[in-house]
Design a protein that fits this description.
The structure holds 2 protein chains of 2 kinds.
Chain A: H1 4-7, H2 21-25, E1 33-36, H3 44-51, E2 61-64, E3 72-74, E4 77-79, E5 83-86, H4 91-98, E6 102-104, H5 112-117, E7 125-130, E8 138-140, H6 148-154, E9 157-162, E10 174-176, E11 182-185, H7 200-211, E12 218-220, H8 225-230, E13 241-247, H9 249-256, E14 272-277, H10 281-287, E15 293-295, H11 298-301, H12 304-308, E16 313-318, E17 321-323, E18 328-329, E19 332-333, E20 336-337, H13 344-353, E21 358-362, E22 374-375, E23 393-396, E24 399-402, H14 408-416, H15 421-434, E25 455-458, E26 464-469, H16 475-484, H17 487-494, H18 503-510, E27 517-524, E28 531-541, E29 546-553, H19 562-576, E30 581-587, H20 591-598, E31 603-609, E32 612-618, E33 637-640
Parallel strand pairs in A: 1-2, 1-7, 2-5, 5-6, 7-9, 9-11, 12-13, 12-16, 13-14, 14-15, 16-21, 17-22, 21-23, 29-30
Antiparallel strand pairs in A: 3-4, 8-10, 17-18, 19-20, 23-24, 25-26, 25-33, 26-27, 27-28, 28-29, 30-32, 31-32
Chain B: E1 4-15, E2 21-32, E3 38-48, E4 53-58, E5 61-64, E6 69-73
Antiparallel strand pairs in B: 1-2, 1-6, 2-3, 3-4, 4-5, 5-6
Classes of the chains: A alpha/beta, B mainly beta.
């Protein structure tokens, strides 16, 4: 490890400050409140000295944000003689609640420095772990700047472990030795943290997250395992940036792959900004004396204003549970404190206000016991950590729901559609009972929305549209498409004048079972601002095994290939389900639809009854179904929606 | 879904010889397919908004039989 700076001769005498850990902590008075460094920067030898003192000072209280490997463990349970006050209940702190040794403080982390400086949470002693000093006497706070600058500005006494293994990080990481009252030499590896391996479900959530991260985005990853897993699926992106409370080893992979450049960041361009890191020696070596990283105080990194000033800011937060209105639980589930408010609110609000920003909350649809994490109501003992008014994207392994600006009915439907299929009927029943959805609301499909069925299609003039399965929650947007149609379009679609589609009629066109009743939509725009430009559906007659097909295409997209794309997609879907063919009922005046129908795949026959032309297209045998239904020049270029493709 | 029923399928304006405008509604017996397409299975009939019957003479000409008034489509 390059630690040359530690070996430089010092221009001042620090000898008297170096003492043993036991001696350093012996001056701590009973009743003191002691801050301990965050995460992998916890001063383990100082803590051990306090724990093993023969005559322990009474009524000490430790304050920490997050600890890893700070306390000794017996049978996986932390052991300490002291009381702890934590802003985040990690695995080390969790067991202390039962013994009454833990006070959890729910607070946005960027607010803590203000709490400290105002004197509302006095700190008597700071215990930190730092790098060796440089020739001018400055040590680095290393892997954790976080709350340390604020703590050092208020603590009466500051004691530091000086560890040559601690990387020397750039940013606002430097503190002069003068600030410390005592120093303790340690020569031990800096604690490492590796996220436990995640399962297949979390992997699918991670892929969905990655699917909506655009080139040039700046990411906040958070502590969750799933957001960190999402980093693995970003290898094909370009010019990503990092502005995150915490960074992990996954960032190193992306920097080395040339994916993270920070080139498009609107602040701290070309730099990775973080407040602390949790990782392995590989990460520590990478950040050591690396000016590409700026480690800044937590209130600078996580302030919503700072976050909002990054364009395309993506914040990823993992939640324990969410109710049907969009309230998420992040720090207390079933009365047990776990996790914390941490930096989530600041990042979610900041990302929401960032230009093209995306605040994302992710969770697996069920707990390990199989209970739904999407609940009709949060229960007593489930705390709201993220307000529903702050909720934008919610991602489970069953898809993505966008809630911001949506009504309770729309939210409930969207969330039920990304719930585990096993729980959907029960959730719908509860939503009806609560009055969240209409009494006649149903869900025709009990299977998961399939992203694999999405296609990106290039239209004749080069515009790209997404052709995707319709969902029950598309009813409102489908009504919007209907109202954009001309009177003539409506007449040729429905064979009568229709002023408005009733809710039941809209549901017929989008809330389908995807087996006998199938509906696809052509949409433009990002997920949060999708516009439906075309609708195509078929309804199978099981007796004949022929499906009746109908389309609506927005006037501004008529003649661009949207109808062709929808028909091609419906055909592909129908053929894969062994449907024998399509039947079309078309008014004789509707020439464009006649042209489309008669170009359907397979053998086409037509007959006429008064003004209605009946077109029957029998699909060819499966051996020849790959033939394009249109001449090459008109064939829309279709491809699997790679952005959304789930290998499993 | 495909039960035969009567349904209003169109509405349009007609004018009499004095330029007075009438709203006329066309009804049909038919079936609504699952695709929401309306398939006519019987004759059409016409009514004014107050329920007065209107006879169709040809595509552009109608008559209120009770008062013998002839109506035309607006040019």
């Amino acid at each position: 490890m390059p630690m040359a700076s530690a070996k430089q001769s010092l221009a001042f005498d620090i000898g008297p400050k170096f003492v043993s850990a036991e001696r350093a902590v012996s001056s701590i008075r009973a009743g003191s409140r002691i801050y301990i460094g965050t995460g992998c920067a916890a001063p383990r030898s100082l803590l051990a000295a306090l724990e093993t003192m023969e005559l322990r000072p009474a009524d000490l209280e430790f304050v920490n944000f997050l600890t890893t490997s700070a306390l000794s463990q017996i049978d996986g349970v932390s052991r300490t003689h002291y009381h702890h006050r934590a802003f985040f209940v990690g695995s080390e702190m969790r067991g202390l609640a039962a013994s009454g040794q833990l006070d959890y403080v729910p607070i946005s982390l960027e607010e803590v420095p203000r709490l400290l400086v105002s004197g509302r949470m006095p700190i008597d002693v700071a215990l930190l772990q730092v790098s060796p000093p440089d020739a001018r006497g400055f040590v680095s706070l290393g892997v954790s700047v976080g709350l340390a600058p604020a703590i050092l500005s208020v603590a009466r006494t500051a004691i530091a472990e000086v560890n040559p293994a601690m990387p020397r990080t750039h940013g606002e990481s430097f503190v002069h030795l003068d600030r410390f009252d005592a120093l303790v030499k340690v020569d031990a590896p800096v604690a490492e943290y590796v996220h436990p391996k995640i399962g297949e479900i979390a992997e699918r959530v991670a892929r969905y997250i990655a699917s909506i991260i655009d080139d040039g985005s700046t990411l906040q990853i958070g502590l969750g395992r799933v957001p960190n897993e999402a980093l693995r699926y970003l290898k094909d992106r370009r010019d990503l940036g990092i502005h995150s409370d915490v960074i992990t080893d996954g960032v190193v992979d992306l920097v080395e792959a040339g994916v993270v450049t920070g080139r498009n960041k609107s602040r701290h361009r070309d730099r990775i900004v973080a407040s602390y890191c949790l990782g392995t020696r590989r990460l520590y070596d990478f950040i050591d004396d690396n000016p590409g990283f700026e480690f800044l105080p937590i209130d600078q990194v996580c302030h919503p204003w700072e976050v909002s000033n990054q364009t395309r800011m993506v914040s990823i937060t993992q939640a324990f549970a969410i109710d049907l209105t969009g309230q998420a639980c992040v720090d207390q589930l079933e009365s047990e404190f776990y996790g914390g408010v941490s930096t989530q609110v600041g990042f979610i609000r900041g990302a929401a206000r960032s230009q093209d920003g995306k605040p994302i909350v992710c969770l697996s649809s069920t707990t390990e016991d199989g209970a739904s994490r999407i609940k009709p109501l949060l229960e007593a003992g489930d705390a709201v950590g993220i307000a529903r008014s702050d909720m934008h994207y919610v991602i489970t392994e069953y898809g993505i729901a966008y809630l911001f600006g949506k009504s309770i009915r729309e939210r409930a439907l969207a969330l039920i559609e990304i719930a585990h299929p096993r729980w959907r009927e029960e959730l719908l029943k509860a939503a009806r009972k609560l009055g969240y959805v209409r009494a006649d609301q149903y869900l025709a499909s009990q299977v998961a929305y399939s992203v694999d069925e999405e296609r990106i299609v290039t239209l004749k003039k080069g515009a790209k549209v997404r052709v995707r399965p319709a969902r029950a929650s598309d009813a409102g947007a489908l009504q919007g498409l209907f109202h954009r149609l001309s009177d003539d379009d409506v007449f040729t679609r429905f064979f009568r004048r229709v002023r408005s589609l009733s809710y039941r009629e809209l549901q017929t066109l989008c809330n389908v079972n995807h087996e006998t009743d199938v509906a696809f939509l052509a949409v433009t725009g990002p997920l949060e601002n999708e516009k439906i430009i075309g609708s195509g559906c078929y309804f199978l007659n099981p007796t004949t095994n022929l499906a009746e097909v109908a389309f609506m295409v927005a006037p501004e997209f008529q003649g661009t290939g949207v109808g062709t794309a929808l028909q091609a997609r419906l055909q592909e879907y129908a053929i894969s389900r062994n449907v024998r063919g399509f039947v079309f009922e078309i008014l004789s005046c509707n020439r464009s639809m006649l042209r489309l129908a008669t170009h359907a795949q397979g053998s086409v026959t037509t007959s006429r009854e008064e003004d209605v032309v009946h077109v029957t297209a029998l699909f060819p045998d499966s051996s020849s179904t790959s033939r394009s239904p249109l001449p090459d020049s008109q064939d829309p270029q279709t491809r699997q929606g790679a952005d959304y493709q789930l290998a499993d | 879904m495909e039960n035969r029923k009567a349904h209003q399928v169109d509405e349009f304006k007609l004018v009499d010889g004095h330029g007075r405008e009438y709203s006329v509604f066309e009804y049909q017996e038919g079936i609504e397919k699952q695709s929401l397409k309306w398939i006519k299975v019987g004759p059409s009939w016409f009514r004014l908004s107050d329920g007065t019957a209107v006879d169709k003479i040809d595509d552009d000409t109608f008559k209120i039989p009770t008062i013998g008034r002839v109506l035309h489509r607006e040019p």
